[in-house]
Amino acid sequence: MDIVEWSRWESETVRGRAKGEIGMDATNDRAAWFQGGEAVCSVTPEARSRAFRLVLLGPPGVGKGTQAELLCKSLGTCHLSTGDVFRAASCQHDPSPALRSALDAMRRGELVSDGLVVTMVEERSGCLGCCGGFLLDGFPRTVSQAEALDDLLVRQGVSLDAVLSYELPLPEIVDRLSGRRTCSKCKAVYHVTARPPHKEGICDLCAGSLIQREDDRPESIRVRMQAYEESTRPLADYYERSGRLVAVTADGAPEDILERSLRELQARATLARH
Ligand code: AMP
Predict the structure, then answer these.
(1) Are the CB atoms for 260 and 164 separated by under 8 Å?
(2) pTM (2 decimals)?
(3) 134 and 121 Cβ atoms separated by less than 8 Å
(4) Cβ-contact 32, 126 below 8 angstroms
(5) CA–centroid distance, residue 107 to ligand 1 (Å)
(6) Residues enclosing ligand 1, CB less than 6 A?
(7) Closest C-alpha among 19, 9, 136 to residue 75
(8) Which residues pair with 236 in a beta bridge?
(9) How confident is the chain (274 residues) per 10-residue block, as mean pLDDT?
(10) Which of 55, 57, 112, 173 to mutate to test the pocket of ligand 1 (most atoms within 8 A of CB)?
(11) Which residues are identified as catalytic?
C-alpha cells in the first residue's frame, strides 16, 4: 500500500474507531475457522480496499491475544487462533483419535505435532483467502509450520503483509500469565489486576465464568516457555530473512501497544514505497 492509500485507510480507521464502526461484527461466530470444512461464518466480512494479512509472534503471556482483539477491531480482520480451535474442540463428546492426541499434548503444555496443526489449518484455509483479511495468532509456531503456511497462502493467491513480533522481559511475562483469566464461554481474556472484569470471576461480554486455563498453571508455563525457546524463536529468523518481521515492544497499556503496532505497520508501508 502506498502512503496515499495508507492515509485514506488510516483516516477511515480513526473515524470508524471513533464511531465504533470498524471491525468485525461482535456477533460473528467465525464458524469457518472453528468448524472448518464447509462451515460458513454468521457474518460475511466486507470486501475492503485494504485487507490486512498478519501473523502475530511472541512468547506466551506477552499479550498477543489482547493485541489480536484490538488489531482486529481497528483493521476489520478476523482473529484466527489455533489455540482457540483446540480449546473449542476439547468440549466435543467424541473427538477423533487425531484430535484426542492433539488435546492430550495441549493439556501437558506441549506443542501439538506440526502435521496435525497444518492439517487442521489446511481444512480452514478458506479463511486465509477471505476478503476481510486475517490475523493469525498461535500459528505458525515452527519453521516447518511457517513453510506450510507460505504454501497455503500461495494456493489462496494472497501474501502476508507483516509478522508482528511482540517482545517483553521474562519476569513481566510470568506476572502476566499467572494472573490471566479466560472466559469459559466466549474465550475473552482478562487479567486479575491489569484488566479485571467488572464483576470478579464473571465475563463482561457474555456473563460466562472466568477460569485459569490449564496451560496457564505454573507447571505448564515452564514447559511452554521451554517449547517456545526451542521451537518458535527460529521463526523470527525465518521471517526476518524474508523481510516480513516487525518487532514491537510489548510493555505499557494494551492501547499504547496497539498504537505502536499501527505505527510500525505505517512505517513499513512508508518504507515499502521508497
Ligand atoms: P495458545 O492459545 O496459542 O497458547 O495455544 C494453546 C495450546 O494449543 C498450545 O500450548 C499448544 O498445545 C496448542 N497449539 C496451538 N497452536 C499450535 C501450533 N501452531 N502448533 C502446535 N501447538 C499448538
Answers:
(1) no
(2) 0.78
(3) no
(4) yes
(5) 10
(6) 60, 81-83, 86, 105-106, 110-112, 117, 138-139, 141, 145, 215, 224
(7) 9
(8) none
(9) 41 41 60 88 79 91 87 91 89 81 86 93 94 93 95 96 90 81 90 91 95 81 78 88 94 93 86 65
(10) 112
(11) 64, 141, 180, 213, 224
